[in-house]
Amino acid sequence: MTTDRPLRVLLADDEHLIRGALAALLALEEDLVVVAEAASGPEALAMARAHRPDVAVLDLQMPGADGVKVATALRAELPDCRTMIVTSHGRPGHLKRALAAGVRGFVPKTVSARRLAEIIRTVHAGNRYVDPELAADAISAGDSPLTAREAEVLELAADGAPVAEIAERASLSQGTVRNYLSSAASKIGAENRHTAVRLARERGWV
Amino acid sequence: MTTDRPLRVLLADDEHLIRGALAALLALEEDLVVVAEAASGPEALAMARAHRPDVAVLDLQMPGADGVKVATALRAELPDCRTMIVTSHGRPGHLKRALAAGVRGFVPKTVSARRLAEIIRTVHAGNRYVDPELAADAISAGDSPLTAREAEVLELAADGAPVAEIAERASLSQGTVRNYLSSAASKIGAENRHTAVRLARERGWV
DNA sequence: GGCCTGCCATGACGTTTGTCATGAGCAGTG
DNA sequence: CACTGCTCATGACAAACGTCATGGCAGGCC
Q1: Residue positions of the PTM 4-aspartylphosphate (chains A, B) (predicted)?
Q2: What is the pLDDT of residues B153-195, one digit of tens each?
C-alpha cells in the first residue's frame, strides 16, 4: 500500500453544510485529497470533467440530476473514475438503479467519516461496497413483478393524474391504461392504483 | 462580546457522517463547544437532561421523535435551553410546527458551517432566525383554507384508502366523506383527492 | 413450426368517485 | 335576534375507475 500519490476525490452534495463538513473531515486523511466540490448534478459533471478525480462521491438527491444520473454520465465520459453514492434515505430501488449504473459504492449517511474514508479506498481499489443493511432491504424487497409498461404507466399515475391524461402521455388507449394499472395493482397486492403507487415506491419498483 | 464562558451546544442528527463532521467544524469556532451528540429523538432528550446545553441543534427527521417533538419536550423540561432545527427538506408546514413549538432557529442544510455558527450565536442571544427562503415559502403557501374536518378526512385519504374505509375510521357517512373530500379538493384547486393530498402535504396543511 | 409471454386494444359491466342540491342542528358574531 | 360558517346527512346523476373476456401481433424458446 504505497501512499506516493494521493487519492483524488470529487464531493457532490447540495447541502453546503454537509459538503463542507465532509471535505474537512476527509482532509484529515493523509492519502485523500478533495479536488473538487459540487452542489448540483450538472455542476458535479462539469467538475469531474475539469478535475478528473479518482473517485466521485455523489449524494443521491441533488438538484438538476440525481446521483445515479451523474454516475451514468461519468461512466460514459470518464470510465476511470469510480463512483459511489451517499444517501440519507436508502430505498431498495435506488440501490438497484445505482448498481445498474455502474456505481461501486452505496452507503447511508449514518456511517462515520473514518468509515467513509475506508470505503472510498475500497472503491478506488476496484472493489465494491454496499451497506449490509441496505443490501438486506433490497433483497427482502425482491425483484419487481411489474412488466416495463406496467411500471411506466404506474409511474405516470404517481401524481394522481386521471386515466385520460396517463393514456395521452403514454400514447396508449384509456382501456389499455386501465388494464395495466389493474394488473399492476393486483400484482402488488393493492386495492387501487394509488396505494399501488405508494407501495411500489416504498419497494423501489418505480 | 466577552468569550469568558463557551457556548454549550447539543447536536442531534441521526446521520453519523453529518453529525461528526458538523461537530468537527463547530469545534473550530472559539466560542462554541459541542457538549453532547445524539442520533435519535429520545437520545437527544436524555443528553439534554444530562448536559444542559445552551443551544440544542436538532435535525428535523430523526428516529424515535422528530426535531419538533424534541423541541416541545425541551421547552417544558429545560426552558433555558434554546432550540433550533436544521433540515434538508424545508416544507412550509414544518416551519410552522417548529415555530409553534418555540423553536428559535430554522435553517436548511444548504448553509455553510460558519453561517450556522453565527446563527447558533444569534439564537443563543435570544433572537430568532428563520431562513429567508423557507420563510418566503411558508408565507406564499399561506394558511390552510381547510376546515378541521376537511383536513382530518383528507389525512385519512392520504394512503389511498377508499371512501368506505375513511368513513368508518372517521365515523362519518360515506356521503359526508365525499362531500368533504370534494370541497377540500376544490379549495386546494386539485382535480381529485389524491392530488389534493399531495398538494396539501407540500404546503404543510396536513 | 408450435407455444408461451408480453404488448396493445376494444367493448361491456358494475362499482366507486365527484358533484350538486338540499336540509337540519349548532356554534360564534355583529 | 339574525346571520354566517361549520358539521353532518341524504339522494341523485354523470363521470371515472376496476375488472373481465376477447383478440391480434410481436418476439423468444423447445
Answers
A1: 59
A2: 999 998 889 999 999 999 999 999 999 999 999 999 998 999 9
